[in-house]
Amino acid sequence: MKMNHLIICIFFAIAIFLCKASIAKPFLQSPTQFLPSTLEEPIAKPLEEPDVRKGRKKPPRHPQSPPGPPPPPPHLTFDHFKLAETWPPTFCKDPANNCFHDWPTINRFIIHGLWPAKKGSDELKDCDKHYHAPSTEHLNGIHTKLTDYWPSLHKAQFQVQANINFWLYEWKEHGTCSVQLLNFHDYFNVAIKLYQKHKILDILKNAGIKPGGTYSPDEISDAISKHVQFTPQIQCKKIGEISYLSEVRLCFTASKDPQYINCDHHGSLFGHECDAEVHF
């Protein structure tokens, strides 16, 4: 009897063990099969931004756009320059001019002035109503050429100072009208460069027009025009009853690098004191 009871207990123990094992088996096969599906895939990490503090390179910058075109030039109050060149012997023949005694023998035309002008009207003058004389130290680099090409013809105790006074007068009277293009130094430097483009006396001599002779204004104008390819203006001075060649004026574009142009017919290409025959 006891043996039978023991066998029955063993049987129930085995049955209980097998039952528990069959229930636990699915969990042992896949511990995650009953978890939500979102946990089956690993969660992606957010992208890390470059850390410049760790020595990583900064992202490349967009290339800068090229600079735009330069601003247009200011609206000018004049449309051309006029370079006036004086013939010293005629200037010194005029008793009204207290001329330095050496100048009548000078053998070249010299600069009278560089004048901004507008077609159909006279040259511009005295454009700075609050004028203050600039320092002539700005002319140190071209002082020698100015003394040679643009001297004062008036007699003076100190010729150097007379020259400086003449240059300052021309700057105040005409140069201040060109400040939209040229400053104090550039005004005189441009005048020198234009003067060096030609030699009026050589042009006239090569055309058979020589000091001491008598010629028509047309002959003088044509000789210069054929050389520079543009029409000049001729000015004369009446001394007594005789008309003398006093000045030749050449016209140029209103720019920092002026080029020859025809002088306009405002008034006349020949001064009112030019007769049919002009003494040179």
UniProtKB/TrEMBL annotation:
Residues 62-75 have a biased composition (Pro residues). InterPro entries: Ribonuclease_T2_eukaryotic, RNase_T2-like, RNase_T2-like_sf, RNase_T2_His_AS_1. Pfam families: Ribonuclease_T2. GO terms for biological process: RNA catabolic process. Its EC number is 3.1.27.1. Residues 42-53 have a biased composition (Basic and acidic residues). Keywords: Disulfide bond, Endonuclease, Hydrolase, Lyase, Nuclease, Signal. Residues 1-24 form the signal peptide. The active site is at 112, 170, 174. Gene3D superfamilies: Ribonuclease T2-like. The keyword Nuclease applies. Residues 39-75 are annotated as: Disordered. One of its GO terms (molecular function) is ribonuclease T2 activity. GO terms for cellular component: extracellular region. The keyword Nuclease applies. Belongs to the RNase T2 family. This is Putative ribonuclease T(2). The gene is 25496629.
